[in-house]
């Protein structure tokens, strides 16, 4: 049985999603194609990449696949529920809890800024499985820094793995309409970022993190030429949906 505290770069979450998305007959995993190694290549020679973080790092892979007339699907999990399990170094469970943090579709926006010119390209799909996952941590004797040195403060645990528990639903983004649907349906025809936030506040389970991401949503839709400025209201820019 494989050690659940594997520290390999590919997490159990990544492996589970790769297995699920490669179930179609004729699909192959870890295939070298066009100078890259792709997670999955289908029997039609289209490609699928599983990317838990830093979606923008796949920009060159996406461009290469599209330039070679291949469809490419980026699978980026949205963590709707995260369970944290902390173990001793000899694999004894110390405690288990559910994290209060929950990602939503608006949490994904920051991942898309570097590839916004590609999002509406024919053949490109962003697929978002909304999941429950378990994060495995190992308690350390002293506070430590992570290998990538991203911690602002050292902590007395280190993350060693992520595991897929369940997929609640899946949402795909590939068309102009898919991205336009990120805007609340009950905003006025001409709207500001404040109008979007007000509409979201009326919806259940809208978090403060979602509201903070609205400027990023407007930035993204503007760069994708889905919405455009049409005036000002005080210091606020007024937008409208751009006609095609």
Tell me about this structure:
- The chain has 244 residues and is α/β, with parallel strands linked by helices.
- The protein has helices at 12-21, 59-67, 176-180, 193-201, 208-212, 214-223; strands at 28-33, 36-41, 47-50, 72-75, 78-87, 93-98, 124-144, 155-173, 190-191, 227-233, 236-241.
- Helices cover 20% and strands 37% of the residues.
- Residues 1-8 have low confidence and may be disordered.
In short:
By secondary structure, the chain is α/β, with parallel strands linked by helices. The chain is 20% helix and 37% strand.
Topology (elements, then pairings):
Blueprint: H1 12-21, E1 28-33, E2 36-41, E3 47-50, H2 59-67, E4 72-75, E5 78-87, E6 93-98, E7 124-144, E8 155-173, H3 176-180, E9 190-191, H4 193-201, H5 208-212, H6 214-223, E10 227-233, E11 236-241
């Amino acid at each position: 049985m494989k050690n659940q505290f594997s520290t390999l770069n590919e997490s159990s979450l990544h492996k589970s999603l790769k297995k699920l998305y490669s179930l179609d007959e004729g699909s192959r995993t870890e295939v070298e194609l066009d100078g890259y190694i792709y997670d999955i290549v289908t029997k039609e020679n289209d490609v699928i990449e599983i990317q838990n973080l830093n979606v923008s790092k796949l920009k060159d892979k996406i461009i290469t696949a599209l330039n070679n007339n291949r469809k490419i699907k980026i699978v980026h999990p949205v963590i709707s529920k995260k369970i944290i399990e902390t173990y001793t170094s000899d694999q004894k469970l110390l405690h288990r809890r559910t994290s209060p943090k929950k990602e939503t579709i608006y949490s994904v926006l920051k991942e898309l800024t570097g590839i916004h010119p590609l999002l509406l390209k024919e053949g490109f799909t962003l697929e978002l499985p909304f999941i429950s996952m378990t994060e495995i941590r190992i308690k350390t004797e002293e506070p430590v820094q992570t290998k990538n040195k991203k911690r602002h403060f050292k902590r007395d645990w280190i993350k060693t793995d992520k595991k897929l528990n369940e997929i609640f639903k899946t949402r795909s983004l590939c068309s102009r309409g898919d991205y336009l649907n990120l805007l609340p349906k009950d905003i006025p025809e001409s709207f500001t970022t404040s109008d979007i936030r007000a509409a979201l506040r009326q919806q259940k389970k809208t978090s403060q993190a979602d509201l903070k991401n609205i400027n990023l949503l407007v930035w993204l839709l503007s760069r994708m030429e889905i919405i455009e400025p049409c005036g000002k209201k005080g210091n606020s820019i007024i937008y409208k949906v751009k006609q095609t």
